[in-house]
């Protein structure tokens, strides 16, 4: 696949302002640059969803390429020969493809694509090299799953809910032909009425369907105003489907509760299989059908718990815990054979694959799942297994995800998707650093990126970049954003402060009820001091940035200290009292991250709010948020901006039109975020040497 050509030079004019910022970044052509430039982001690619054929000889995967003309990510399907590594295109055109799934006999690949004008299910016949459109659905399908005999495809799809009594009772007169009336009113009755990236939710629910694999009419299996089947699994005999759901009348108020259900196709019987307090999901049968493995997480009113791998004896119904002693969050179990499974979990900044025997014996296989995201070094990665061959997305600090395999005890990388872009570039180098927090001596793990052509005898400006979540984690993984900052001469430091995932429940829960606080800032501050002690950091040129939970932490930090020359506060929460009742996550956050409703706990909410410290802020602060953000609404940034302006603190607000919480979900927006932050920091940076 050819890469996009280099961007032609273009310039945006500056607007009248009290700052030196332009309305948009200025780019020049850097086609021959030996460094990582912003326009290189458009040429990056990454692999995801690798699926091994049943015989273990081939892999189909999704190849994602940024598109400079559409400012999006284009997805295609490619085939890999496991033995030779030879790659061939399966579907590479102007359409988008995803969710490839092999039939049990390996002769067909089902997938979802918009090639017919809307997202529909297709089946590709491998030997015949022919493809059939098999669905005519009114909504986009998901969770595509073959039946064992290859005769049916199960999937999920949203279905409009029945009109409520109030909706039926509203009688509007008929609009005359060609009349121009105002837009109709939107009636909202549900508790969960909005979602970031979706806006106001339509009155519809996710249901389970089956469809003949040769095409025909889909059959709806589930009923009621509930969401069914975030994952689907067939019984080995193909007579029933297993999936998770919460059918309690108050399900919207139970964000961490779901049970496993069995739907028998012959008699349309829906049977509840589990009734444990908490979430049961990701159910998968052993090849011989004797055991059902699934993941369970408790429903305590806390912000973080580990998922546990459970094993059900299918005949007796007895359930046991296979990962009782593993203090990590287990995900995505898949059977390696009848006596062992493969699981993934995050461990100290890396995503790990391990095998688990039926007696609970754990053996690590690889910790190199990575690279299935571009902006920041979050933990990521996917895998599949068939015939004892494991395909997974493999990345590192220098490259986004390629496809790799574990077969016959050996690990090999089969693709090199970014060598044409990055192979000749000088990139920043990632180094690990470990230190103790000044607050309580808690060990903290971090990393730092040194600029290309780094000289340890010189002094460099440093940027502290704080991750979101807060129960997420960074690691030694590729980050387009941080590579750009490093190229521009900054040492970029990031850590997994208390509250981060991948270090067990105790560490994650150290931030419970303290989001944000002087305690997690002490973790960052101690890391900054440890970096200064290395000898190449200019202590008079320190900068701080972070997004989402990292934006909260950054805004809180500048209320605690004046040691930073400038700050970039991206998509933050500034006032928890207002956010918790305006953002889309209120049903969860109110009771899992706080002691209760805000009107009964005003002091607690206010203490956690950066706005409570705004009277201390003197640090020049940029605020950046998407105008369509419903996770951390832009009204939060506006409060901080206005407060800082009242106090005459140097501040700017950058609004990203149309963007939800994920500002970097389009290449140009990622570049905008990077270049605005660089321009802001460069205004306050002084000569380091």
TrEMBL record:
One of its GO terms (molecular function) is serine-type endopeptidase activity. Residues 202-296 form the Dipeptidylpeptidase IV N-terminal domain. It comes from the Bacteria. Residues 476-684 form the Peptidase S9 prolyl oligopeptidase catalytic domain. InterPro entries: 6-blade_b-propeller_TolB-like (IPR011042), AB_hydrolase_fold (IPR029058), Peptidase_S9_cat (IPR001375), Peptidase_S9B_N (IPR002469), WD40 (IPR011659). One of its GO terms (biological process) is proteolysis. Keywords: Hydrolase, Protease, Serine protease, Signal. Residues 1-28 form the signal peptide. PANTHER family: DIPEPTIDYL PEPTIDASE FAMILY MEMBER 6, SERINE PEPTIDASE S9 FAMILY MEMBER. This is S9 family peptidase. It comes from Rheinheimera tangshanensis. The lineage of its organism: Bacteria, Pseudomonadati, Pseudomonadota, Gammaproteobacteria, Chromatiales.
